[in-house]
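Entry for the shared binder. Reason: the reviewer on the internal report wants the predicted structure included alongside the sequence.
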Amino acid sequence: MTAASGERGVGDAAPDFELEGSSGRIRLADYQRSRNVAIFFMREFG
């Protein structure tokens, strides 16, 4: 990661973040030891 631009490249670690999920709060750090983590966002229709 370049400090000035904040860009990330292939193989860089993702920054920790926290989201509200359907089963409560979820942190990326909770899955730190997992090999693969897939995250998707659904658009709310309403």
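Summary line for the report: The CA atoms of residues 15 and 28 lie 8 Å apart.
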